């Protein structure tokens, strides 16, 4: 056990030479660094500009969410999950509510399912827009940030009108929804879909054939499908490596099997393919939203759930396709009002582990691109 | 699959189902051979998660859970084994590379050691921290006050 402020094992390999002679250099990036999207510290081992290896130091945002869960009731823990992946809070809530519903053996009524899908897909869109803006900004393209934030605002407005909050929405309840869709919700969603479709073309005009963008992303941070599976990488990163796997199709949850949509895949597993995959995903999300908003059935929005929730003794694992990958909840119930144990399987945490493999042999500047393309949220990595 | 495994390992494997989810409780001595067979012969190529649950009143205090998924079979399964406090487990990093950080987190939160792990150290908590927070005897407000005093300069340690 060494002190956290002392050097890491990577430093110990540094050859015993004077600085100018040294052909290997260990440098520290972060935890306060604008391109690490939070407080991530990366220790890089370099040969000139080339990355030989790196080590991630995480935990700066650790709040002990899993410990808190054991000391709260099932209902009380619901708002906490929003604070993990705070740019996709709705997805976190969906995963948690569905997991507890499974444990209680109840199902949300159809109307609630439709509204849930609409909000979740809107959130996927918002998450991808935030990713695109900041990722492009890291690489040096400033304009997309303004475009994506302008359009993401429209999604946040819908969230605000629906539940009063913009980011940490706490939109869903165990068993359904607390709030009925406000008057004009369907119109707002339809307007948004027709508003944002041409905007995605605008983002693509800025980047897809932009020479600088191509130079900075093609062949950068390559990971093969085989390596991605071995490293447990999920979400758009896995799909860009050619593995056609999306939990919405493979193990459908909510009512995704009612909707038509495609799963985009890439061929090269590089940063550019991941960009394309996410762009197509945004369009597919719009497709799902457009179908869902046409078919919202009438009916109740809340299933019959007991006021005091005491799920029977047992354990379950339930996972959903969050914008970043597989978000899973492993819940153990001991029959009391509080969960005995909740384990969150965060996609960002597992995906971040691949950073080392993806950066080896690349340039220092590409590390920034790869961190961006992994689309991590440190609130979820550290929990 | 279960029948085949049972014919090899006998009563060391107990298959169970809860709410449509399959899992098996296996003997500690079958790890890691069973995990390797699940990957190589049964195509469970993706290790979704590794985690633990603490039952302080039991003789074997910890449940270790591997959640596995197979892309070719589109099937999920959980493998569970029971170990006592202080007992260690063989690492599964050579089987699934993703186990590296997941095992580090289990070590960080529960103090369970994995033999043969390439770099077993704390991951979310600072290196010098004392105690394992997700054990049931660790209080919700408890902190390593000595660490807080030394490293953060907060005299009360909270």
Structure notes:
The complex is a heterodimer of chains A (383) and B (158). Chain A is an alpha+beta fold and 383 residues long. In chain A, the strands form four sheets. In chain A, strands 1-4-5 form a three-stranded antiparallel sheet. In chain A, strands 8-9-10 form a three-stranded antiparallel sheet. In chain A, helix 4 packs antiparallel against helix 5, helix 5 runs antiparallel to helix 12 and helix 5 packs antiparallel against helix 15. Chain B is built from four helices and seven strands. In chain B, the strands form two sheets. In chain B, strands 1-2-5-4-3 form a five-stranded mixed sheet. A two-stranded parallel sheet of chain B has the order 6-7. In chain B, strand 3 and strand 4 form a beta hairpin. The termini of chain B are far apart. The mean pLDDT of chain B is 86. The interface between A and B is large, with 46 and 37 residues.
List the helices and strands and how they pair.
The complex is a heterodimer of chains A (383) and B (158).
Chain A: H1 9-12, E1 25-29, E2 32-33, E3 38-39, E4 41-47, E5 50-57, H2 65-70, H3 74-82, H4 89-104, H5 110-139, H6 143-163, E6 172-173, E7 176-177, H7 185-207, H8 211-217, H9 225-230, H10 236-240, H11 247-250, H12 271-294, E8 314-322, E9 325-333, E10 341-345, H13 347-352, H14 355-359, H15 364-374, H16 378-382
Antiparallel strand pairs in A: 1-4, 2-3, 4-5, 6-7, 8-9, 9-10
Chain B: H1 2-9, E1 13-18, E2 21-26, H2 33-40, E3 46-54, E4 62-70, E5 75-83, E6 89-90, H3 99-110, E7 114-115, H4 145-152
Parallel strand pairs in B: 2-5, 6-7
Antiparallel strand pairs in B: 1-2, 3-4, 4-5
């Amino acid at each position: 056990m060494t002190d956290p402020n002392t050097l890491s094992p990577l430093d110990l390999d540094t050859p015993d030479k004077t600085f100018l002679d040294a052909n290997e250099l260990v440098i520290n990036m972060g935890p306060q660094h604008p391109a690490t999207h939070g407080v991530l510290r990366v220790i890089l081992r370099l040969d000139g500009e080339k990355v030989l290896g790196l080590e991630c130091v995480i935990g700066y945002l650790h709040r002990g969410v899993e410990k808190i869960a054991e000391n709260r009731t099932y209902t009380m823990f619901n708002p906490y999950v929003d604070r993990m992946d705070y740019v996709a809070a709705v997805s976190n809530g969906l995963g948690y509510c569905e997991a507890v519903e499974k444990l209680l053996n109840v199902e949300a009524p159809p109307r609630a399912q439709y509204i849930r899908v609409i909000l979740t897909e809107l959130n996927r869109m918002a998450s991808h827009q935030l990713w695109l803006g900041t990722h492009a900004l890291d690489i040096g393209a400033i304009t997309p940030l303004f475009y994506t934030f302008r359009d993401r605002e429209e999604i946040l407005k819908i969230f605000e009108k629906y539940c009063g909050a913009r980011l940490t929405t706490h939109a869903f309840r165990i068993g359904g929804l607390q709030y009925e869709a406000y008057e004009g919700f369907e119109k707002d969603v339809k307007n948004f879909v027709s508003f944002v479709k041409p905007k995605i073309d605008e983002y693509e005009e800025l980047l897809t054939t932009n020479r600088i963008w191509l130079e900075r992303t093609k062949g950068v941070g390559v990971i093969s499908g085989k390596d991605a599976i071995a490293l447990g990488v999920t979400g758009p990163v896995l799909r860009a490596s050619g593995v056609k796997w999306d939990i919405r199709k493979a193990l459908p949850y909510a009512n995704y099997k009612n909707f038509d949509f495609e799963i985009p895949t890439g061929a090269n597993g590089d940063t550019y393919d991941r960009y394309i995959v996410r762009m197509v995903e945004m369009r597919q999300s719009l497709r799902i939203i457009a179908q869902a908003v046409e078919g919202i059935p009438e009916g109740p929005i809340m299933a019959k759930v007991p006021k005091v929730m005491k799920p029977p003794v047992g354990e379950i694992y339930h996972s959903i396709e969050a914008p970043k990958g597989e978000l899973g909840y492993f819940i153990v119930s001991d029959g009391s009002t509080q969960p005995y144990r909740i384990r969150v399987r965060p996609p960002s945490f597992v995906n971040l582990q691949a950073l080392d493999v993806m950066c080896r042999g690349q340039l220092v500047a590409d590390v920034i691109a790869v961190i961006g393309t992994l689309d991590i949220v440190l609130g979820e990595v550290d929990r | 699959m279960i029948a085949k495994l049972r014919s090899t390992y006998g009563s060391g494997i107990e298959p169970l189902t809860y709410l449509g989810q399959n899992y098996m409780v296996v003997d500690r001595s079958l790890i890691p051979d069973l995990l390797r067979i699940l990957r190589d012969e049964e195509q469970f190529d993706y290790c979704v998660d590794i985690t633990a649950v603490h039952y302080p009143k039991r003789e074997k205090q910890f449940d270790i859970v591997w959640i596995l998924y197979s892309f070719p079979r589109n099937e999920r399964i959980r493998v569970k084994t029971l170990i006592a406090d202080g007992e260690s487990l063989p690492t599964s990093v050579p089987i699934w590379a993703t186990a590296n950080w997941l095992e580090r987190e289990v070590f960080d939160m529960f103090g369970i050691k994995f033999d043969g792990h390439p770099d077993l150290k704390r991951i979310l908590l600072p290196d010098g921290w004392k105690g394992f927070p997700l054990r049931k005897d660790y209080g919700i407000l408890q902190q390593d006050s000595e660490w807080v005093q030394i490293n953060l300069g907060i005299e009360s340690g909270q």
